[in-house]
Q: What sequence folds into this?
């Protein structure tokens, strides 16, 4: 029989992963009337939060998707009128830009994300939330270093 400490150690990351999936599903449920799913709203958020228009390959990396998947996704987003792709200085590397419709849609997505965040995080004690954030950030940082060294 596992001690409480052993159970926490064994189940911590699966719980974080499950919570992340549930978080995205809660947002998806709210965005369904707009015809958006995680596959479409998440790239739009990445684009809107980028300091400069990213290249397709940079967006693929940020979304942790392979290039061919991102090309298909961007094709669909462009057909829907959310993005445009433009050639940069290197004609092989296209940058991705939000259209006016894309910006307006991102505002709606941000409002939904804010509402979900307020609903599920707003009831937690601030100090507990800060501690949880700090711990998950430390784990993320360690994983990122290990993954970068492995590449």
A:
């Amino acid at each position: 029989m596992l001690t409480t400490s052993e159970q926490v150690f064994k189940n911590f990351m699966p719980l974080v992963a499950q919570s992340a999936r549930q978080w995205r599903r809660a947002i998806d449920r709210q965005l369904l009337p707009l015809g958006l799913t995680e596959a479409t709203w998440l790239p739009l958020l990445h684009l809107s939060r980028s300091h400069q228009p990213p290249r397709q390959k940079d967006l693929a990396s940020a979304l942790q998707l392979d290039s061919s998947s991102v090309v298909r996704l961007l094709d669909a987003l462009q057909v829907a009128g959310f993005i445009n792709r433009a050639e940069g200085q290197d004609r092989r590397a296209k940058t991705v830009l939000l259209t006016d419709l894309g910006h307006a849609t991102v505002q709606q997505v941000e409002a939904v994300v804010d509402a979900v965040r307020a609903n599920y995080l707003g009831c937690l004690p601030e100090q507990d939330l800060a501690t949880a954030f700090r711990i998950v950030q430390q784990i993320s940082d360690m994983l990122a270093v290990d993954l970068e060294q492995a590449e």
In short: Residues 34 and 105 are 9 Å apart (CA to CA). Residues 4-31 form the longest helix (28 residues).
